[in-house]
């Protein structure tokens, strides 16, 4: 049988083509087949695990996107609430307090928390200084800051006073 086998020259073998392998016995063929099957199975398991990890990562990215999809609209709405709060400070008892409360309740519904300034030390991650007195230690809030699902979306603007 080996006399009838044709030998291929290296130049005749195409890249990626399977080259016939001489097999000594059925046992060798069985071992090689078993090894190849195990290798294919292990590769399949690895690819399956990679795919499942990809699906989980993609689901997390989509969830994160959905959580912050309204961020721009909320930031613009905050500017309106800031203007309403300034109007309330200037003109007392004109009924804007209830509207501001409704906006703030809406903010809470979408995961916003107002950042507290009282009894806190200055933190550049949370606070933005707009004015500073010499030797100032206390902070006075100029504009409210907000955190959305744990992420700072707008820092608190503060004045540093004595």
Q: What do these coordinates show?
A:
With 162 residues, this protein is an alpha+beta fold. It folds into two domains: 26-67; 71-161, Head domain of nucleotide exchange factor GrpE (Nucleotide Exchange Factor Grpe, Chain A, domain 2), CATH 2.30.22.10. It contains three helices and six strands, in the order αααββββββ. The protein has a three-stranded antiparallel beta sheet. A three-stranded mixed beta sheet has the order 2-6-3, with no helix packed on it. Mean pLDDT is 83; it is low at 1-11.
Brief account:
By secondary structure, the chain is of the alpha+beta class. The chain folds into two domains: 42 residues; 91 residues, Head domain of nucleotide exchange factor GrpE (Nucleotide Exchange Factor Grpe, Chain A, domain 2, Roll).
């Amino acid at each position: 049988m080996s006399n009838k086998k044709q030998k291929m020259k290296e130049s005749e073998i195409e890249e990626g083509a399977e080259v016939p392998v001489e097999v000594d016995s059925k046992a060798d063929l069985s071992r090689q087949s078993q090894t190849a099957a195990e290798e294919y199975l292990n590769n399949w398991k690895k690819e399956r695990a990679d795919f499942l990890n990809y699906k989980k990562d993609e689901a997390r990215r989509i969830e994160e996107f959905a959580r912050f999809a309204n961020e721009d609209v909320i930031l613009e709405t905050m500017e309106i609430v800031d203007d309403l709060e300034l109007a309330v400070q200037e003109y007392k008892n004109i009924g804007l307090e209830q509207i501001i409360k409704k906006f703030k309740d809406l903010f809470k519904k979408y995961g916003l928390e107002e950042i507290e300034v009282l009894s806190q030390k200055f933190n550049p991650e949370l606070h933005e200084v707009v004015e500073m007195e010499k030797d100032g230690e206390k902070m006075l809030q100029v504009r409210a800051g907000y955190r959305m699902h744990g992420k700072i979306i707008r820092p608190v603007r503060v004045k540093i006073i004595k």
